[in-house]
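Continuing the series of single-chain predictions for the mutant panel. This is the parent chain; the variants come on the following pages.
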Amino acid sequence: MIRAALWVGALCVLGLAVPGTEVDFYRISYEQQRFFGLLDWLTLAMEVGAGFGSTYGEDERLPFFKNFFAGGINSVRGYSTNSLGPRDENNDPTGGNARAVGSAQLLAPPPIEGADSVRFGVFVDGGQVYDTTDEAVDFTDLRYSAGVSLSWLSPLGPLTMSLARPLNEEPGDETQFFQFTFGSIF
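Parent structure:
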């Protein structure tokens, strides 16, 4: 049995520093999730996210604490948290003023009676962070990963685990095969 979209969620955020403050900047980000019921027991979950920020006035770069980051269980699984994108002279991730991420995941309950709060998933993620003050966005730099996930809505909050392998790892990328998160991000 094929069904139409179950749920659609979108979030667009615009941040703007008031002119005359120490650093004049703006940031805009967009995130959308869609869930499609394919069969009674199978759901396709898709997510996309994009963000861009820049300065106006004399400053050339966003404040470091306003940079975008990607990598980890909440963006591109299989890569270490916040590890994608530009790096400093010590090879530490610095984030950037632009970000693109996306994910496609097939979700299914386990074949066990009474396990309604558990979902298994098979996914493909992709994304990258860019610093457009130094170079143009090049989508051939996107990093991809694939793997499996388990989500459980426990009595104490959601618990998510994933096993993921990068599909196009480059030298210097930080990878992480097993990742988990407990609770929600607000």
